[in-house]
Amino acid sequence: MSIEIHHDSAMKHVTGQSVYINDIDQSRLLIGKVIYSSQAHAQLTKIDYSEVLNIKGVHCVLTASDIPGENQMGPVIHDEPCLADKEVTFIGQAIALIAAETEEQLIEAEKKIIIEYQPLPAIIDLETAIEKSNLIAKPRIIKRGKPDEIIATAPHVLSGTLKTNGQEHWYLETQTALAIPREDNDMLVYASSQNPSETQAIVSEVLGVPKNDVEVEVKRMGGAFGGKETQANHVAAWAALLAQKTKRPVKIHLFRDDDQLMTGKRHRFISNYTIAFDDNGKILAYKVELNADAGAATDLTMAILERAMLHADNAYFLPDVEIIGKAYKTNLPSNTAFRGFGGPQGVAVIENALDRIARYLKKDAVEIRKLNFYDEDYRNITP
């Protein structure tokens, strides 16, 4: 007998009673705004916000030089500045932060800040990054057997390229954080984060305080899908910096257009493969090169790339195999976690190859897949 169990917050969600970060009422609350780059790659030659400070209701403007701790938000590799300093590497990269009493004051302030650039060459697509060998880290390789020799003598060989594009998370609640300064320089951060302990670590590093001085609470998230695993740290750090400077609560709630412009997506891949098979469609050897667009910083790219490599076989036994993973740096927002975490990109290539085998042999694709499945007792070792 089944029992219908409702989500704990279902009634609150449908009646509008659920409290999200953007709904938390705070006295003396200031609103934060992120001023970001309009250039994909450029030197910062001038940042002038002198007129901004004369606007009534504006409490502070912060740039990289005002960060008391470490100017870094990279969760694994420290290659992602909290605020751009001297150089910007993608459109949407944060350059300055403003705290004011109203949205109208922030809009006026944004118009008064002067940022000048010296453009630099930019790589804005994966194809160009591959052509220029603009790797963000060393390639990864998984190999078993002698796939090149098998391919050279196989009765049938197919080669191809599969492009899988990026994808926007489009969580209903955009990136949001509320930072509240407390006594003894402690900081309470309400974050829409999938990883509050990491958010705590990043905020503490940026503020230059011990981790136990920062408390992060996740009330609830209005969607995430991987988009708030690392990149929620950004908004939390920015809000905390403004709160620390003004000694007042500061909330940053990204406008949808800004959120989509500033944040990373699912990693786009260009994957090249060669597959050898017999007359029945049984795989004899498989070679695949998975090329991922990391964006401007590493973020979780290498773990995602490795996950794609580990899923390159999907459910099929590959007797002789070579899997190469490469991640490239581009002048785009740093791509990040997304449901599947690289798995879909790896799986899609082998599935595409099997479909091509079926068409080539004029067989049912289901038959080809069944023939190549892992077995329980033999043909059961992964690459």
Ordered list of secondary-structure elements with their pairings:
Blueprint: H1 10-15, E1 30-36, E2 42-48, E3 58-62, E4 87-88, E5 94-100, H2 103-112, E6 114-119, H3 126-131, E7 140-144, H4 147-153, E8 156-164, E9 176-181, E10 187-191, H5 196-207, E11 214-217, H6 232-246, E12 250-253, H7 256-262, E13 269-277, E14 283-295, H8 301-310, E15 320-329, H9 343-361, H10 365-372
Helix pairs in contact: 5-6, 8-9, 9-10
Number of helices: 10
Number of domains: 2
User: What is the CATH architecture assignment of the largest domain?
Assistant: Alpha-Beta Complex
User: Roughly what percent helix?
Assistant: 25-40%
Pattern of helices and strands: HEEEEEHEHEHEEEHEHEHEEHEHH
Return the CATH topology of the largest domain: Aldehyde Oxidoreductase, domain 3
Total count of strands: 15
Shape: elongated
Which properties best describe this structure?
26% helix, Aldehyde Oxidoreductase, domain 4, seven-stranded mixed sheet, 2 domains, five-stranded mixed sheet, alpha+beta, 10 helices, 383 residues
Short account of what is shown:
With 383 residues, the chain is α+β, with helices and mostly antiparallel strands. The protein has helices at 10-15, 103-112, 126-131, 147-153, 196-207, 232-246, 256-262, 301-310, 343-361, 365-372, and strands spanning 30-36, 42-48, 58-62, 87-88, 94-100, 114-119, 140-144, 156-164, 176-181, 187-191, 214-217, 250-253, 269-277, 283-295, 320-329. The protein folds into two domains: 10-120 and 169-262, Aldehyde Oxidoreductase, domain 3, CATH 3.90.1170.50; 126-167 and 265-372, Aldehyde oxidase/xanthine dehydrogenase, molybdopterin binding domain (Aldehyde Oxidoreductase, domain 4, 2-Layer Sandwich), CATH 3.30.365.10.
